Amino acid sequence: MISTFMGLETAKRGLSTSQGALYTTGNNVANANTLGYSRQRVNLVQTSGFPTVGLNSPRVAGQIGTGVAAETVQRIRDSFLDAQYRTQSNKIGYYGAMSESLTKMEGVMNEPTDSGLAATMEKFWNSLQGLTANTENSGAREVVASTGVMVADTLNYYYNSLTSVQTDIGNQINVKANEINTLISSIDQLNQQISKVEPHGYIPNDLYDKRDVLVDNLSQLVSIKVNNVIPTDYGRASDVATGLYNIELMQEDGSSFVPPINLVSVNQTGMVGTSKVEVSHDKKTGMVDGLKFGSKTLTDYKFSGELSGLIKSFGYKKADGTIGGAYPDMLKKLDNMTTAFVNEFNAIHKQGYALGDDSTSALNFFELEPGKSAAQSIKVNGEIIKDPTKIAAGGKSGGASGDNENAKLLADLKKKAFSEYLTKDQNSVELTGSFDTYYSGIIGKLGVDSQSAQKNLSNSVVLAASVNQNRESVSSVSLDEEMTDMIKFQQAYNASARMMTMMDEMLDKIINGMGTVGR
Amino acid sequence: MRVTQSMLTNNMLSNLSNSYEKMSKLQEQVSSQKKFSKPSDNPVAAMMGMGYRTNLNQIGQYQSNIAEATNWIDSTDDAITEAVSAMQRIRELTVQGSNGTYEGEQLKTITEEIKQLKEHLITLGDTQIGGKYIFNGQDTNVRPSSVKDANGNTVYGTGDINLEVFSGISLKINTDGSKIFGDALAAGGSIDQTIEALENGGDVSGTLEALDATINNFLGMQAQVGARQNRIELMTDRLKQQEVFATEILSKNEDVDIEKAIMDLTTQESVHSAALSIGAKIMQPSLLDFLR
Questions:
Q1: Which residues are CB-neighbours of B40 under 8 A, at least 6 positions away?
Q2: How far, in Å, CA of A211 to CA of A183, rounded?
């Protein structure tokens, strides 16, 4: 026998469920612009029919539905798109850091302009040509000395500016490492909170969203992979519970480190702990010489992301003890080039004769400070600045005023290949071509590197935008849709209320209208 | 695909910022007149540009070296031309003196004039440009006539002064003074012989041959200088052509096509304003506007 009030109960369920759906709609609308919010949906299910099967169950024609219930409130999200987005955002982090540091480098080098090293060197070579034409002229000699000073100043400026940008990047590495550690512990805390809610059968959508935003941020800094882990002993967790996040640091090619490095470690029995990152620097060179993740130390930086981009710009010590990185490379190239140039220029200069001098000048034109980088310490010999007649333009003793033979040799250095240098044995093996072609090669390579970083960055930005578009298409709130839902649930609510009224009238008939025959 | 408000907003924002970026790049091109400002804008062109600049600069430097060389060689030519006419005058006077019709006083005048002409040749040997003695070898700041040997002969300095006038090509710009003025003015040389013969009232016709040899020596030198002048002219022409060529390449490599840049900028501006107004329209309506 069906209970008298069953219809009322069904209508009541309808009312409260519609109300719940409306509240969720309200929540969606309220969070339409919240960062990381994914729209939520109430999963409506029918409550079980009456009567249920049993020995004593009433014999009726069939089951009658008993209404609706809100089973779960679930966020609508696609974890596959999340993974795609994080891959792209990781590339944005890496190429963003790379392209920014290379663009800064281009800014310092300032080529091709009229004020870069190339232009300054041209002035210097010209001044030497001027000297060959006017060896007796003290003006021409002053010009050689002062353009020599300009060359030295430009190289000093390059060195100082590059190292100061490099120092900035080094500071950023520490900031980013702190950021990573903060994110790791926040994710770990959210894991803990979630682990307290899920076993009760609830779905903590707000905590999921918060955690996903943090993981998005983390993915920009280091390359990671997220594994959902639902511990075996996890209470009455719902089927749609997301579980805990285990976050693994991945290599740039997408494979795991051996042994794996888990930034946030979770296994079947629950949370294990976190591995915070610690950056260590080589005491002598100041370069990054290792990254400690918890108890494991990485020395090959084979992961991607902003942290890695910064380290690869700033400079790091490789396993074989050599230094790598965009800034150290550039500084080293400038240094090798400067050293070779200074040694050769001095060697030729020393062979020559100063004005009115009978013995070879034996004077260095440029001076380097031992123990310091050549580009940092190059300067023009003070004696030459004081007395430019000491510039050894002459090729033979006697100090004839018109003797320009050595000046010509000095001017010819412009076109001389490093391999033809008298001092070539002291040169670094990397040096090829002449000073001019080698330097324009450096600038060309910088341009190509910077351009490719920028192109990769803009590609990643486009891809990330497109993945994010897909993600938003799934997860973001559409006001039109919510308004439609609002009308839908409002009408359902109204209809349930009407059912309630109808039941009331029906009961009124039974209670007040029946058994009153003949009255 | 499900489209939501936030997607529209994000899309529009990113499209607008792209469009701004394009505009700023074009604007930079228009105002700087250069296709690129950083090596990364166009690495190949930037690298080539550095090479072209070096070329152009080198051409400029060779041109100024050539100007210096021209200065020296033209002055040498002038000096020798003048020396030749002085020598010819000496020869003329010598011929007059050899006629035997002149009296002692007249011969003295002739001798005096020849002596003056000799002084003139010494002055020519001291020719200077820009404070430099061009006939004194590498000792350019020493007046040749101020240095004499035991016999009273002028000792001209030695040594070549070469200037690079083209990649790998050096040109000697000075002329050995001792070979021309030194020989002509030497003690016991053709002029001295003539003067001595005239002063002793002797026969001067014998010195004409020596004078002719001296004149020929001058003319020979002048021919050499002329050859060098021709060479310089050739170099100048070639450098001028190269300069035009190098400037053109440099310009093609990095100068912006201004008409195109302005057209692109204008197009981009109208695209941008269209994007703005469409964005403003698309952001407005939602179902909310139609619900009571």
A1: A102, A103, A106, A446, A447, A448, A449, A450, A451, A454
A2: 10
CB contact under 8 A, A136 and B140: yes
Structure tokens at B241: 């052509």
Dmax over CA atoms of chain B, in Å, equals: 140
User: Is pTM beyond 0.90 here?
Assistant: no
**Counting Cβ atoms within 10 Å, is residue A359 exposed (0-12), middle (13-18) or buried (19+)?**
exposed
Residue A356 phi, psi dihedral angles, 5° rounding? 75, 20
Q: Tell me the C-alpha distance between B273 and B279, whole Å.
A: 10
The candidate with the shortest Cα–Cα distance to B90, out of B178, B191, B173, is B191
Match 């307290």 to its residue by tokens. A196
Nearest CA of chain A to the CA of B111: how many Å?
Answer: 37
For chains A and B, count residue pairs whose Cβ atoms are closer than 8 Å. Answer: 176
Token readout for B243 is: 């300069």
Name, in order, each residue with C-beta under 8 angstroms of B250's C-beta and a sequence gap of 6 or more.
B49, B52, B53, B56
Preceding amide of A260 cis, omega within 30:
no
Q: What is the DSSP string of B71-98?
A: HHHHHHHHHHHHHHHHHHHHHHHHHHHH
Does an H or E element contain A71, and which?
A: strand A68-75
Neighbours of B243 (CB within 10 A): 16
Contact residues, chain B, for A109 at CB < 8 Å? 39
> Exposed, middle or buried, A355 (CB in 10 Å: 0-12/13-18/19+)?
buried
Q: Which residue of B has its CA nearest to A445?
A: B43
Output the tens digit of pLDDT for each of chain A's 519 residues. 678 889 999 999 999 999 999 999 999 999 999 999 999 999 999 999 888 888 888 877 888 899 999 999 999 999 999 999 999 999 999 999 999 999 999 999 988 888 899 999 999 999 999 999 988 888 999 999 999 999 999 999 999 999 999 999 999 999 999 999 999 999 999 999 999 999 999 999 999 999 999 999 999 999 999 999 999 999 999 999 999 999 999 998 989 998 899 999 999 998 889 999 999 999 988 999 989 998 888 888 889 999 999 999 999 998 888 999 999 999 999 999 999 999 999 999 999 998 888 888 778 999 999 989 999 999 999 999 999 999 999 888 877 888 899 999 999 999 999 999 988 888 887 889 999 999 999 999 999 999 999 999 999 999 999 999 999 999 999 999 999 999 999 999 999 999 999 999 999 998 888 887 776
Name the residue among A360, A447, A421, A369 with its Cα closest to residue A395: A360
Query: In sequence order, what are the beta bridge partners of A277?
Result: A293
Q: How far apart are CA A135 and CA B140, in angstroms?
A: 9
DSSP A93-152: HHHHHHHHHHHHHHHHH--SSSSSHHHHHHHHHHHHHHHHH-TT-HHHHHHHHHHHHHHH
Residue (of B127, B39, B242, B281) closest to A441 by Cα position: B39
The DSSP-derived string for A199-256 is GGT---HHHHHHHHHHHHHHHHHS-EEEEEE--SS-TT--TT---EEEEEEE-TTSPE
Which ipTM value was assigned to this complex? 0.86
Radius of gyration of chain B (CA): 38
Residue in chain A closest to B44 (alpha carbons) equals A444
Q: How is residue A451 written in tokens?
A: 């351009």
Mutation target among A85, A455, A478, A482 for the B interface, most CBs of B within 10 A:
A478
